[in-house]
Amino acid sequence: MNGKFSELLSLGFLISQEMVKNHGEDNYYCKYSEDSAVICVLDGCGGLGSRTYEGCGGQTGAYLASRTVSGAVHDWYRDMGRTKWKDEREFMESLITYIQKAYSVVGDYAKSSIKISGSMVRDLPTTIALAYAWMKDNELVLHVVWAGDSRIYLMDEDGMCQLTRDDVKSQDALSNLYDDGALTNVLSSDGNYKLHHKVISIKKPCVIIGATDGCFGYLPSPMNFEYEVLRNLTDAKNIYGFRDGLKAFFKEVAGDDFTFACMGFGYEKFSELKGSFEKRRNFVEKEYISKIESDPDNDELIEKLWQEYRKLYERYLSKNTEGR
After folding, report:
1. Domain locations in the chain?
2. Hey, which of 24, 201, 251, 261 would disulfide with 39, CB 3.0 to 4.6 Å?
3. Which residues are in the PPM-type phosphatase domain (predicted)?
4. What are the pLDDT digits (tens) for 96-105?
5. Sign of the C-alpha dihedral, residues 36, 90, 202, 177?
């Protein structure tokens, strides 16, 4: 898509909910300017980061980790958000520098205030899923960065697709829902992680979504996640109804903190956005959801439907991915 960035960016909102007040391990950062926009969702890893820190209000390493990195992204976007990046390497080196600096400051302080409670395998571990959009040579470009199992999605008229590949031992997005696979890669202050990165060009109107696993991890299938986003979008009268409907749904089904952020490009008004997904909503409902709901305990049926659905859902997962 071509045009001014500020004209192409047409919507954005954030949903975030703690299961335990003031102890939520999710965090986020979302911001836009005339030249770029960023959404970032993070999920502090409760099992890996369960040790508490007396000098940090008795909070866990997971709680501190997600806030440390969201603060780093805040500072990075404040200072670098309008940069005309030369290439992907410059972009990643800049972001990693800010993350490592934040970890250095917070990590040193946290270690000096450890209260012996819980078992900590990693220092300040958290997932991250970040999408940064900007105009390059009059083309809308999306940088996608991640570690762990928080996700960035792209949703257009062809359907929802996952842009990030989960760092877990499970094989795919369906098996991840049932295997409870261990995370194989997350950010941490020890620096022992891989930050994945891919760049895509956005050719047509779409919605970019960032979500922690509290949004999708309690649903029967990846098809259900797309359907609930579509249902709440097409049933809404305005952007606020879309946001509030999704939040109510996540509160009903989630057994964990959840964070959902989105930004849309190429829609002049909400009615255009809504109308562009009516056909897809009806298709997903007919071909997948109605069949799952008619026989919800039929694992073979869900697997069969997933094998068909994943052909488009995984259309970006084969793209080259760099790790730093």
Report:
1. 5-323
2. 261
3. 10-265
4. 999 999 999 8
5. negative
Residue 117 confidence (pLDDT): 47
Cα 273 from Cα 237, distance rounded (Å): 11
pLDDT of residue 59: 78
Q: Lowest mean pLDDT of 53-57, 232-236, 271-275, name the range.
A: 53-57
> Options 3.50.50.60, 3.20.20.60, 3.60.40.10, 3.40.50.300; which CATH number does 5-323 get?
3.60.40.10
Rounded to whole angstroms, the Cα distance separating 279 from 289 reads 14
Rounded-to-integer distance, Cα 190 and Cα 277, Å? 44
Contacts of residue 215, defined as CB under 8 A and 6 or more positions apart, other chains included, come to: 225, 250, 254, 258, 259, 260
Share of the chain above pLDDT 70, in %: 89
| First-residue to last-residue Cα distance in the chain | 29
Strand, coil or helix: 137? coil
Contact call for residues 70 and 143 (beta carbons, < 8 A): no
Instruction: Report the predicted TM-score, pTM, of the whole model to 2 decimal places.
Output: 0.94
Distance CA 150, CA 210 (A): 8
